[in-house]
Design goal:
42% of the residues lie in helices and 18% in strands. With 273 residues, the protein is an alpha/beta fold. It has one domain: Rossmann fold. It has an eight-stranded mixed beta sheet, with helices on both faces. α2 crosses α3 and α5 crosses α6. It is globular, with a radius of gyration of 17 Å.
Length: 273
């Protein structure tokens, strides 16, 4: 583990778990932390992969008082971490808001990125527009943030209970809640910023293969967004987990690992060809 200096006298927390295999960069969702990936991270390490994670600005063990907690800032942090660690052929995997960060990082990394995984990713857009009829409205996102003002603890408790559509147990819900409660108020701004992000041109121009993981019962990022991502990518594949909500890596862990491992194996085969 370590800290990456990112200006403003502030630091971003990261972990770099060594392994001989193709590296992964795991990017967590809004107001979560890298701990959300613990089960996935352990499984990837057992398969021999090198795995890096980081806590986005305002979240987890990263500094809470960054002036800039935009999606673009997190993209910059992800790219800086990949360069700092000297990773090549990295698979960038982003969950939820982290999907937008992952798409931006994959685009900026160019040939250093071997593949992009969007795990219920909020990319290419999280909000609807005249020519993109999927997702929430910007007003709805603003109202959501406003609803936290009176009681953040209860708000995040409710979100923790709604993440998964399949039963995952009280321990998992409490674990999600504990991560939410680590996030500082500045993290709220990243969700407001996400409402303005449009990555359609970026995603359609991406050279790396894209795997879009979709939760069929996801109430946070509609399945149509994940399907649109796979459709507009040059080399896009969608894997849909019926009955799963916003976290297939928790709700159907064996199936999720099969999907991302098959993707990594494909990239390795193509690299050897």
């Amino acid at each position: 583990m370590g800290y990456l200096e990112r200006g403003e006298g502030r630091r971003v927390y990261f972990e770099d778990h060594q392994g001989p295999g193709r590296p992964f960069l795991l990017i967590h969702g809004w107001a979560m932390s890298g701990r959300a990936w613990d089960t996935t991270l352990a499984a990837l390490r057992r398969r021999g992969h090198r795995v890096a994670t980081f806590d986005q600005r305002g979240c987890g063990l990263s500094d809470k008082d960054f002036a800039d907690t935009s999606v673009a800032a997190s993209i910059g942090d992800a790219v800086a971490l990949v360069e700092h660690l000297g990773l090549f052929g990295v698979i960038v995997n982003g969950w939820s808001l982290g999907g937008a960060v992952a798409t931006g990082a994959a685009h900026a990394l160019g040939t250093r990125c071997g593949g992009l995984i969007l795990t219920c990713g909020a990319s290419p857009r999280f909000t609807c527009s005249d020519d993109f009829p999927h997702g929430a409205t910007t007003d709805e996102i603003g109202a959501l943030i406003g609803s936290m003002a009176a009681d953040r603890a209860s708000f995040f408790k409710g979100v923790s209970q709604a993440v998964c559509a399949r039963p995952v147990g009280q321990a998992v819900e409490d674990w999600l809640w504990s991560m939410f409660m680590q996030a500082g108020p500045a993290a709220d701004d990243s969700l407001l910023d996400l409402a303005k992000v449009d990555q359609r041109a970026m995603l359609s121009g991406l050279g790396a293969p894209v795997l879009s993981i979709i939760g069929g019962a996801d109430t946070f990022v509609p399945a149509e967004i994940g399907e649109a991502a796979a459709d507009m990518a040059r080399d896009g594949t969608a894997v849909r987990f019926e009955g799963c909500g916003h976290a297939p890596f928790l709700e159907d862990f064996p199936g999720y690992m099969d999907a991302i491992s098959a993707f990594a194996d494909r990239l390795d085969r193509e690299a050897r060809a």
